[in-house]
Amino acid sequence: MNKISRDFSIMVTTVALAAVLAGAWLADIDRESDSRARLLPDQMMTLFSDPKPLKAFALTDDRNRVFDLENLKGKWSFLFFGFTHCPDVCPTTLAVLARAREHIAKNTVGAGNLQFVFVSVDPNRDTAAKLRQYVNYFDASFVGVTGDDAQIGNLAGQLGATYEVAIAPGAENYPVYHSTAVFLVDPRARYHAVFTPPLDAEVISRRFKVVRELEGDNPT
Amino acid sequence: MRWRYPVFICLITAFGLVPAAGKAEGVSVRDAWIRQAPPGATVMAGYLELRNSTSRPQVLEAASSTGFASVMMHRTVVRDGMAGMEHLSRTELAPNASLIFAPGGSHLMLMNPKQALRAGDTVVVELEFRGGLVLPVTFAVRK
């Protein structure tokens, strides 16, 4: 379709991003008084100038272990909210994230402390075993987590993720609505940035590299 | 609205479409594919590019396949950053234009495959147009 123009715009926005990061942003930029969000020129990644520390939450991972705030510390985490019965958006996004992980591993020094977390908003159907099978299909390193509605709502609320599960009694299939964004949490368990569609593996990888370089190797 | 996936993209320029899977009454198809389902998934999505080279609209009213329990036309809609699905009872192809079913936009929702489909497999889905035209389309399963 419009791949060439998109590639070109990615290139242009990458240059623009580098310019922004090298100049204005590293200097004492004007922060919007009404919002801590800064939308970068490409509109694909929103980077927070004042990352928000996440508060305690508790979920369960795909091996039935506790997954809580501690699991987000010491590594960069990409989080995506979805459900395994999702035919279009979730497999598309997880496939992009699997490619992004590969790309990051090849191109970013110290990419070891990285995790990708798929948060199922449909615990009714997504058991730990199903989640594990599902996320492993995309990448063996991916982690699936879920919990009850209050537990999912806690983390979702902190990240601004939205979802709605329209369970109909007795129905095998019911609609599930969920955020399409991918959330980036830094090694201090702070909500650091968010990626919004259209998502592209290489762009995510390049943006992440810049974010990491800005933060230094060991943000503490 | 940041969502820019092609939902309905009409390409006005007529570039030659290779009728990969079938051609009848001026409607042709290319790049018909189904995303291989992750383990446990019972719903798959089919994507394709349809071209109407006639001078009148063509209306896709239904789809069916012996490979699946049911086939429906769906569209992913994103409102306030939240995705959901909308059932499409019909899809109109404008005269001399293409329509793309692509990830994040319109897709064929393929429910309960009768046998496991893996990358490299093919499956035929029949597209039923208003006026009685039935177009059998061979979809390739891809990872």
Description of the molecule:
Chain A is built from five helices and eleven strands, in the order H-E-E-E-E-E-H-E-H-E-H-E-E-E-E-H. Helix content of chain A is 36%, strand content 25%. With 220 residues, chain A is an alpha+beta fold. Chain A has helices spanning 3-25, 89-107, 128-138, 149-159, 201-215, and strands spanning 37-39, 45-53, 58-61, 66-68, 76-82, 114-120, 143-146, 163-165, 176-179, 182-185, 190-195. In chain A, strand 10 and strand 11 form a beta hairpin. Chain A has a single domain (37-215), classed as Glutaredoxin (3-Layer(aba) Sandwich). Chain A starts with a helix and ends in a 5-residue tail after the last helix. Chain A has a nine-stranded mixed sheet. Chain A has a two-stranded antiparallel ribbon with strand order 8-9. In chain B, 0% of the residues lie in helices and 56% in strands. In chain B, strands 1, 2, 3, 4, 5, 6, 7, 8, 9, 10 and 11 form an eleven-stranded mixed sheet that branches. With 143 residues, chain B is mainly beta. In chain B, a hairpin with a 7-residue loop joins strand 2 (27-35) and strand 3 (43-52). Chain B has one domain: Sandwich (Immunoglobulin-like). Chains A and B meet through helix 2, helix 3 and strand 9 of A and strand 3, strand 5, strand 6 and strand 9 of B. Strand 9 (176-179) of chain A pairs antiparallel with strand 6 of chain B, so a sheet runs across the interface.
